[in-house]
Amino acid sequence: MKLATRFRILRDRYIAAGIRRNYWNARALGGELRRLADARNASFRGQVLRDLKHYWFDKPRPVPGETEERAAAAVAWLLRAQAATPDDGVSLGWFPCAIDGADWRPSYPETTGYIITSLLAYARRFGDARARTAALAMARWEIAIQMPSGAVQGGPVCAPEQQTPAAFNTGMVLDGWCSAYQETRDDAILAAARRAADFLVADLDASGYFRTNGGFVKTGEIKTYTCLCAWALNRFSELSEEDLYERAAVRATEAALRQQRSNGWFAHNDLIRSDAPLTHTIGYTLQGVLEVGAMTGREDFVGAVRRTIDHVIPRIGPDGYLPGMFYEDWEPAGFSACLTGSAQIAITCYRLAQLVGIDRYRAAADRLVDSLKASQSMGSAVAEANGALPGSFPIFGDYMRGGYPNWATKYLLDALLMQHYAHARCVRDGLTVSA
Fold it and tell me: What are the residues whose beta carbons fall under 8 Å from the beta carbon of 382, sequence distance 6 or more?
């Protein structure tokens, strides 16, 4: 990383942020570190220290192969996260240094929604009945907590009177319902999906942007990454055979592309910092645009994703390390990796390789995924973490600090499934692969 970039990050983080924000950030970190020092966290503390050693002195070596084994471990962790809650949702994640002392967080409707799709894909690939049963239980739970408007609530699960709608969360659960309906042809699931799809169509403004961002993200601006909802709408259009949902999906995707700069970077594309979006939200946007493009035959959508990815690939290190945030000039905006985002970028690269037949996209995806395997917890003394992917590398990095959000492992699973497929295809075609 350039010295000027390091100073730029430090300036934005500590000078531009202001005294108040720095105080509250330091206070939160101090509380987490005190919890880390507890005797009960001794094993996790050792894991954190090893992670820091790797970050500062010897980056962990990428792990070729082991794709099927690691996908199974990821699924086992997701089912453990579901079992950790009193309902059929999936815990937001495991955070052993949480200030309130609750290691396993409550169920998270948004990400439970798209975990359904991942588990069903795994169940089909490997004939895993347990993953299928768990995914369908999640789908029925999502129906039980759906808001009367058809929306899905923002944030962790809460009482109906405390729910606030969020368009993005609605799209993610719609995705899960589409997958569950394809699996079961259950009319109750289709009806819930229709209510969600109708909410999303009504939520689009005249410019094609979703209006209801909910109370858990920075307000007052467009959220470009919500175009991922367009993919779910397009999927529902195919299931229902009704064109109005596809038209809405295309409008939302066209609106997102109006935020793209000539170098592929997207404006208004983060939960909090639009000047320096996470690879996580960049990945959301790319996947939404790409999949709608693939489904509708819009080559301009696919081309827009290539424009972004062609600027991201040079930022991937030989060991698969990718910075977790980027400024508009594609200089890193943070010191740690957002592992969820790395997985999402890998998924996008695999799909591009499938769609346009350019192998360098697959090679880039393999570098990312093999690097992620090195951060996946395998055979750890910390049983609650086994199979999971942390939010950041190092674990106490910028994104979802000090724990394992369920969506990091979900996207790792998706990336592993795509690597498994790419490997099988390359073996069939006589090509060399790393997995």
Answer: 43, 44, 47, 96
pLDDT in tens, 169-205: 999 999 999 999 999 999 999 999 999 999 999 999 9
Predicted TM-score (pTM) of the model is 0.95
The total of structural domains in the chain comes to 1
Name the residue among 55, 44, 61, 186 with its Cα closest to residue 103. 44
For tokens 């909090």, the residue is 272
Burial (CB count <10 Å: 0-12, 13-18, 19+), residue 341: buried
Diameter of the chain measured on Cα atoms: 59
Mutual angle of helices 167-184 and 187-203, in 10-degree steps: 150
- Bridge partners of residue 338, in order along the sequence: 392
Q: How many CA atoms lie within 13 A of 293 on its CB side?
A: 23
Residue 210 domain-assigned (yes or no): yes
Residue 184 and residue 194: Cα distance in Å, rounded? Answer: 16
What would the pLDDT profile of 291-337 be if each residue is shown by its tens digit? 999 999 999 999 999 999 999 999 999 999 999 999 999 999 999 99
Six token digits for residue 114: 């798209």
Query: Is residue 28 domain-resident?
Result: no
Q: Residue 428 — pLDDT band, cuts 50, 70, 90?
A: low
Q: Which range marks the domain in which residue 374 is found?
A: 62-429
Instruction: Name the CA radius of gyration of the chain, rounded.
Output: 20
Eight-class DSSP state of 321? -
Is 183 part of any domain?
Answer: yes
Report how far apart the first and last C-alpha atoms of the chain are (Å, whole number).
Answer: 29
Please report, for the domain that includes residue 334, its CATH number.
Answer: 1.50.10.10
Cα–Cα distance measured from residue 97 to residue 42, given in angstroms and rounded to the nearest whole number: 11
Question: Could you tell me if residue 1 is inside a domain?
Answer: no
d(C-alpha 146, C-alpha 143), whole Å? 5
Phi-psi region of 270 (alpha: psi -120 to 50; beta: other; left: phi over 0): beta
